[in-house]
Each structure stands twice: as C-alpha cells, then as structure tokens.
Design brief:
10% of the residues lie in helices and 42% in strands. It is mainly β. The strands form 3 sheets. Strands 5-4-7-2-10-11 form a 6-stranded antiparallel beta sheet, with no helix packed on it. A 4-stranded antiparallel beta sheet has the order 6-3-8-9, with helices on one face. Strand 4 and strand 5 form a beta hairpin.
Length: 178
C-alpha cells in the first residue's frame, strides 16, 4: 500500500477510537494503584484482511500483543494506530494487552477495522476478558480463558478523566466503517 494511502487509512481508524460502542474497560470497576492486569479480546475473521488498523489507548502503561506477537509498548495515554495485517489470520485472532495502573484512573480501549478483498469492512470494539495474573500463553489464540472474568465496563471513550485526551484524536467517522 502506498504510504499516503496507509496514512489516510490510519487517520480514518484513529477517528473511530471514539465511534459507537468504543468503551474503556479495566479488570475492576475501581482500579487499584500499582497493579498489572491482563486483557484478551478474541475475534474471528472469515479471511485474512487486505488491510487493517487498530486504534488503542492504555492508561497508564502497557504492551499490546496480536496473536502472540508483541507490538510496541505504550504509555501516558498515547493513542496509537497500528497496521496489524501481517499478524492476522483467517479464523480466530487475539488482541492481548498487559496494562499497569500506576495511580488513579485506569483503562484500556481498542477499536479495530479490517478491510477485505471484496471491499467489505468489519469493525471490532474491545469487549475484554481479564485476569489479575499472567498465565502462560495468554497472548495467543487457543488459550483457554474460561476462568477469566469479563472486564468491567468503565464507560464511553470520551468520559472523564479521558475527555481531553480522547478529543485530541480526529473523529472522522462515527459509524465504524459500516
């Protein structure tokens, strides 16, 4: 894909971080200071997408994994958009996040868009399973997360204390690419 098209696609996806149903989640409804939590979002793709991007943010610091492959570490509420196409497969996929709350509010938020060869798109919002301890293989598809709990819904993407931070993202599309 040409660099300018990739940039436009990433801008489109970053605008969707606050699109419909994008919410902040955490392991507990009332986050504890100085704790690390683990999150998994499973989704299935009918075929490998021709392009994809994921917009995400973590409060306070964390590392994102896609199908077991470590992506870049994030901190201080940086909103990041990554092209994940090389790491995706037809079938089950997992976005996994190891997140640490240093103090105060805590949350993770993810919005992904996948575009397929026929031009159709699929938007995926984070509804996470979470755990308070690391388990071997937690970042890969096929991991049994049945003992993990549903992550607590903290609130919509533009809620306080993240309102000002989220407003720095250009919200170009509120439909999720539908």
């Amino acid at each position: 894909m040409k660099p300018y098209l990739t940039a436009l696609f990433c801008l489109f996806v970053s605008g969707m971080l606050c699109a419909e149903n994008a919410n902040w989640f955490w392991h507990e409804a009332m986050p504890l200071d100085n704790t690390t939590r683990y999150f998994r979002m499973k989704f299935s793709l009918s075929s490998k997408p021709v392009k994809s991007a994921v917009a995400f943010s973590i409060d306070d610091i964390g590392v994102i994994h896609v199908n077991g492959k470590r992506q870049k570490q994030r901190q201080s509420l940086e909103t990041t958009v990554r092209d994940l196409t090389p790491d995706l497969v037809a079938g089950e996929n997992v976005i996994a996040i190891e997140a640490t709350n240093m103090t105060g509010a805590a949350g993770v938020i993810v919005r992904a868009v996948f575009t397929f060869e026929d031009g159709k798109t699929l938007a995926v919002n984070g509804k996470f399973k979470s755990a308070d301890r690391m388990q071997e293989g937690w970042q890969i598809p096929g991991f049994d997360s049945s003992s993990w709990k549903d992550a607590a819904l903290i609130g919509p993407c533009n809620m306080a204390p993240w309102t000002k931070r989220v407003n720095h993202v250009p919200f170009l599309d509120q439909t999720g690419g539908k």
